Amino acid sequence: MSQVARKVNDIDVSWPPEVSHEPTMSIGRVHEIIVKEFPSVSQAKLRNFEKHGIVSPARMSNGYRGYSLADVERIRYALKAQRDSYLPLNQIGENLRLLDLGEEPLPVQPVMRVVASEGQMRLPTHSRISLRDLQVYTGASDELLEKAVNAKLIAPDFSSRFSSGAVAVVQALEVLEKQGIEPRNLRSVYSAVNAILDLVDRVVAPERQKNNAVAKDRAQMRATELSAQLAALAEALLTVGVEEL
C-alpha cells in the first residue's frame, strides 16, 4: 500500500486499522455504498482519490482495482472533510497520512461555505472564488487548471479570482481529459461560444443601453433566454451531426 502505515500487532496497517483491509470490492460496489450518503459522487471522483493518495486499491489478478472496507472509510473521511470542513485534497491526504502514523490530524480552520441539502457543496449563483476554492469544488490538478487558463477556458480577474461558473467548466474539462481531449483542443469551442455571446450582445444592446435599472434587468433576462435557446440549437445541430458521422 502506498499510504504510510503504522504497526498493529507487528503488521503494517493504514488507517482505519479496526476494519478489514482485504480488497474484496470493485469500484462499482464501493460507489453503491458511498452514494447512499453522498448521492452526487461519481466513480470518476472515486478514481481521482487514488491519484491524490487518499486510497491505494490493490491490483487484482484480473487487472481490476480491489477496494477494502478500510478504503471505503478513507473515501468517506475525505468526502466528509470536503463537505463539512471545506478542506482541499492535499490537506485531506496529509491528515490521512498522520492518521496512518497514529497521530492527530491537522486542526481545521473554519471557513464559509454553502452546502446543499443532500450534502453536496453548492456555490452561490453570483460569486467569485479563489483558485483554492476551485480546486476544492472540483478536485482538479494544478496542471489541468493551468491548461484551462492557458486555453482561456477559465480566466481569473485582477484579484486572481474566478467566476463560480468556472466550477462547471473545470468539471467538464476533467471528463473530457479522461477521453483524451486536452483544454488546448477546445479553443474552437471557446471561439464558437464567444461568437454566440457576440450575437446575444448585439440583440440586447439597445435595451441594455437605456439609462434605467428596469431596462437593464430586462436586457439581462433576455440575454439569458437567448443564450438558452442558442445552446439548445447547438445541441440539436450536434445531435444531427453525430448521426451523420
Automatic annotation (TrEMBL):
CDD domains: HTH_MerR-like. GO terms for biological process: regulation of DNA-templated transcription. Residues 41-98 form the HTH merR-type domain. GO terms for molecular function: DNA binding. Coiled coil: none annotated. Pfam families: MerR_1. Gene3D superfamilies: 1.10.1660.10. This is HTH merR-type domain-containing protein. It comes from Mobiluncus curtisii ATCC 51333.
